[in-house]
Design a protein that fits this description.
Residues 19-154 form the DDH domain. One of its GO terms (molecular function) is nucleic acid binding. Residues 223-310 form the DHHA1 domain. It comes from Spiroplasma clarkii. The structure is a single chain. By secondary structure, the protein is α/β, with parallel strands linked by helices. The chain has 2 domains: 4-192, inorganic pyrophosphatase (n-terminal core); 197-314, Diaminopimelate Epimerase, Chain A, domain 1, CATH 3.10.310. The protein has helices at residues 4-16, 30-46, 73-78, 128-138, 145-158, 169-180, 185-193, 197-207, 225-228, 235-238, 278-281, 303-314, and strands at residues 19-23, 51-55, 80-84, 102-107, 118-121, 210-212, 218-223, 253-259, 266-272, 287-288, 292-297. It has a 6-stranded mixed sheet with strand order 6-7-8-9-11-10. Strand 6 (210-212) and strand 7 form a beta hairpin. It is globular, with a radius of gyration of 20 Å. It starts with a helix and ends with a helix.
Length: 318
């Protein structure tokens, strides 16, 4: 449950600023983007004279962030920066984050970097969008259909369709609240889970590349640029390969390590049913949640170092 004093402080801080910038983490997911866009809609619905800008990279191709193009040094210097779904200052997807007047942090990760003057954080929440919904409820704010739709995208994906361990009664209460705001569940689920034929073919191909540890309940897929570049898929769709290893009884930790065109690094998407894999992720230039984390490797040879730490985790020796 969110802290009521922190929730009221967020509202007071928003009221105090005319110009507000909302930033999410680099390489955003649905929770980051849904939090940013949902928060913007809530602010504008309740404080219509505010100037609100969402900045950073877009997650899905049918959205186009033009807010950042409207910014100039004068606006930035006068602005409140609200960060959503970001635990580390360096991972804020905004070039001029050091130039704003004040920073307010909304998050659901464990505290890593105390970079804000005020914060609204609940590390027991399954999604940052859950924190934002509860803030709106606590402060009796209007939530329109557009805001609710964006927030539901984050809630449903970060909870794995309500399957992940941190899903609780509050999560379902938030979902019920958003449904009451008029969201179209069928449109949301179709957008999230209907796949192109090329993506479905890719997922079957990726499963065929899986490597299964013979002594531990660990599996992974190594994906080079050559493995995916001719499959008519985006880099975001490459990452969906991590899902093909979930739901296998014999596998308790799984990951993909793929060659990224965007970063020219080896990016890792790491998942677990029970083990606290974020403890391993932080040792490999990453972090995240207990059961869903990310990391970065310099080359594919470092997969073995990652495997060593994952085996130690299973053996309770990390």
């Amino acid at each position: 449950m969110i802290n009521s004093k922190q929730a009221q402080q967020l509202t007071k801080t928003i009221e105090a600023y005319q110009k507000i910038i909302i930033a999410k983490h680099i390489a955003p997911d649905w929770d980051a983007q849904g939090s940013a866009l949902g928060l913007k809609e809530i602010i504008l619905a309740n404080f219509p004279k505010k100037e609100v800008y969402v900045v950073g990279k877009v997650f899905n191709s049918d959205k186009n962030f033009v807010d950042e193009e409207k910014l100039n040094p004068e606006i930035i210097a006068q602005a409140l920066l609200i960060t959503v779904d970001v635990a580390n200052f360096e991972r804020i997807d905004f070039t001029f984050k050091n130039d704003v007047k004040e920073v307010f942090k909304i998050d659901h990760h464990l505290e890593v970097d105390d970079f804000a003057s005020h914060k609204l954080v609940d590390d027991k929440a399954i999604a940052c969008t859950q924190v934002i919904v509860q803030w709106a409820q606590a402060c009796n704010l209007q939530v329109n259909k557009d805001a609710a739709t964006n927030l539901y995208f984050g809630l449903i994906t970060d909870s794995g369709r309500f399957l992940y361990n941190k899903t609780n009664q509050e999560t379902f209460n938030c979902a019920s609240f958003l449904m009451d705001c008029g969201i179209n569940l069928q449109e949301i689920y179709d957008k999230l889970y209907l796949k192109k034929l090329d993506v479905e073919k890719w997922l079957h191909h990726a499963f065929g590349m899986a490597v299964f540890d013979t002594a531990y309940p660990i599996a992974y897929i190594k994906i080079t640029l050559a493995d995916w570049k001719d499959h008519n898929i985006t880099e975001e769709e490459v990452k969906r390969a991590v899902s093909v290893l979930s739901g296998i009884r014999d596998i308790e930790i799984w990951f993909i390590a793929y060659e990224s065109l965007e970063t020219e690094k080896i990016k890792v998407s790491l998942r677990s049913r029970h083990y606290e894999i974020n403890r391993v992720a932080v040792k490999h230039n990453g972090g995240g949640h207990m059961l869903a984390s990310g990391a970065k490797l310099n080359n594919f040879e470092e997969i073995e170092n990652l495997m060593v730490d994952l085996r130690k985790l299973v053996d309770n020796k990390l």
